[in-house]
Amino acid sequence: MTNSTRAGFVALIGEPNAGKSTLLNRMVGAKVSIVTHKVQTTRARIRGVAIEGDAQIVFVDTPGIFRPRRRLDRAMVTAAWGGASDADIIVLLIEAHRGLTEGVKAILAALKERAGAQPVALAINKIDKIKAEKLLDLSAQMNAEFDFVKTFMISAERGYGVDDLREWLAGELPEGPWYYPEDQIADLPMRQIAAEITREKLTLRLHEELPYQLTVETEKWEDRPDGSTRIDQLIYVMRDGHKGIVLGKGGETIKGISTAAREEMSEFLGRPVHLFLQVKVRPNWLEEAERYSEMGLDFKDGD
Fold it and tell me: For 302, which of 74, 223, 235, 245 could close a Cys bridge (C-beta 3.0–4.6 Å)?
């Protein structure tokens, strides 16, 4: 790569469920970050890599910023701000129909303290949910609150405005060599991406029953001579009752989750996958440093 190339880090920040993971996947053009309708599903700072012309944009997809209550929450919020402080550009994503919420006000207050010289752009997402004049009012209101370098109106889900945002980011990044090989889309180890895929399927299937009291770890990974991959994963839950919910009647629930996860892993890896899931009860996993390392978080950040 010559010096005519550009490369840099872009942090996507916002409240839980603002659409950061959907936007990241749209920008990168592949499913890198777990997407669900549940808040708070992104735990680790997953980076997606997008190529735009001569620029390589490395996205830091931070956990949603919210008021932390437990150790895991505190570690996630610390990771979010850590991701933002390391970035060349910060993009604040807000939901058009929710507007300037208390949560967004808190993020703006923190940005004023933390952003320093970093440029901060505003992306108003889900623009198809409100009328155009309301959108202009919201944009004016947000820009009165904070000095954004640029404002974008987008729909991450439908793709509106996303190309404009990506092109602008590419032009703003510093000149320099690329950080990653061209064919690499995420810097999470494949084992962790596989764990995220299974966790997404669990979250979607179990809805309100077990939202954050479970975690998934890839225990073994074996690429076989026949071109397939065997993946063994452990699902940790906090109580015996939770184990029953994950397994379901006659093992139906876990079978459905396993099938959905295996299909997506096969598609992602481009090879057949044999997936084996086991559910284990670990009452204190939220207090175990090792579980945090698996998620790319720092246990001490929860103090």
Answer: 74
- Do β-strands 151-153 and 214-223 pair in parallel, antiparallel, or remain unpaired? unpaired
3-state SS, residue 261:
helix
The mean per-residue pLDDT over the stretch 199-213 comes to 72
End-to-end CA distance of the chain: 42
CA distance 252 to 113: 50
Of 91, 106, 71, 116, which is closest to residue 19 (Cα–Cα)?
Answer: 91
**Contact (CB, 8 A) for 245 and 210:** yes
| Superfamily for the 190-302 domain | K homology (KH) domain (3.30.300.20)
- Report the alpha-carbon distance of residue 267 to residue 261 in Å, rounded: 10
Cα Rg of the chain (Å, integer): 20
Question: pTM of the entire structure?
Answer: 0.61
Yes or no: domain 6-172 corresponds to CATH 3.40.50.300? yes
Instruction: Tell me the C-alpha distance between 65 and 114, whole Å.
Output: 14
Residue 232 CA to its chain's centroid (Å): 23
State mean pLDDT over 197-204.
85
Domain boundaries, the chain: 6-172, 190-302
Q: Which helix (H) or strand (E) covers residue 12, if one does?
A: strand 6-14
Query: What is the H or E stretch that residue 59 is in?
Result: strand 55-61
Q: Is the pLDDT of residue 123 over 70?
A: yes
Judged against a pLDDT cut of 50, whether residue 33 lies above it is answered with no
